[in-house]
Design brief:
CATH topology of the largest domain: Rossmann fold
Number of helices: 9
Radius of gyration: 17 Å
CATH class of the largest domain: Alpha Beta
CATH architecture of the largest domain: 3-Layer(aba) Sandwich
Bound molecules: 2-phosphoglycolic acid
Largest sheet: 6 strands, parallel
CATH superfamily of the largest domain: HAD superfamily/HAD-like
Strand order of the largest sheet: 5-4-1-6-7-8
Helix content: 40-55%
Order of helices and strands: EEHHHHEHEHEHEHEEH
Length: 231
């Protein structure tokens, strides 16, 4: 992996990048489907539906497919959403775990004084409690959730908002994520991106989205950043 020019700000995706949240998301989705008397799905299937926020996840579950059916009634969606929020809030961090290398890498990165932020499509009601449950909240100066702004990734708006708020140039920002939504947002915004190979990318190879860097662990990010930070 080649070295980076100075990185002055890192934006991390959350689900599939820092935390494997799919087990708890799948439990909450299946509890919702059970309450509605509908077919439940294996975690392995639900994993591939994560990435575009809770509304899309719920609608995919109601469709039984990653392609959302056009005949989901608004009243059914609203009922399902209430059930999902209730179930996921109750068991937000039971089976969810940090990926290998995440805790150590964030600690090391914080010592290098590179400001770190979160840009997730997860709704805000879940983001901060999950960061706290995983003991990560202290690392992040800014946390943008899927409903913090009018549009979410792959739209560039969250990254544009972030650089303005943190008073850095877009060229100083590195987006780190596991999904094509992260890489597409970075490309649309004009910042660099690092794609991680282990998360949820609808079963696709992240390299196909063309990130500037590909890594199979956050430890590689740490090495890359160390190379870009001048003492
Ligand atoms: O909640 C989601 O759908 C995905 O969230 P993420 O942007 O942190 O991957």
């Amino acid at each position: 992996m080649s070295q980076l020019q100075a990185v002055k700000l890192i934006a991390f995706d959350l689900d599939g990048t820092l935390v494997d949240s799919a087990p708890d998301l799948a439990l909450a989705i299946n509890a919702m489907l059970l309450d509605l008397g509908r077919e439940q799905f294996p975690e392995q299937t639900i994993r591939h539906w994560v990435g575009n926020g809770a509304e899309v996840l719920i609608k995919r579950a109601l469709s039984g497919s990653s392609a959302i059916s056009s005949d989901i009634e608004e009243s059914l969606y609203l009922q399902a959403k209430d059930l999902f929020v209730q179930h996921y809030s109750e068991k937000l961090c039971v089976a969810s775990k940090l990926y290998d290398g995440v805790a150590e890498s964030l600690e090391q990165l914080s010592k290098l004084n590179v400001p770190m932020t979160i840009v997730t499509n997860k709704p805000g009601v879940f983001t901060q409690p999950l960061l706290e449950a995983l003991n990560l909240a202290q690392y992040f100066d800014v946390v943008l959730s899927g409903d913090s702004l009018p549009r979410k990734k792959p739209d560039p708006l969250p990254l544009q908002h972030l650089v303005e708020r943190c008073e850095v140039e877009m060229a100083d920002l590195l987006m780190v994520g596991d999904s094509k939504n992260d890489i597409q947002a970075a490309k649309a915004a004009g910042c660099r991106s690092l794609g991680l190979t282990y998360g949820y990318n609808y079963g696709e190879d992240i390299a196909l989205s063309g990130p500037d860097f590909v890594a199979d662990s956050l430890v590689s990010l740490l090495e890359l950043i160390k190379g870009s930070v001048t003492a």
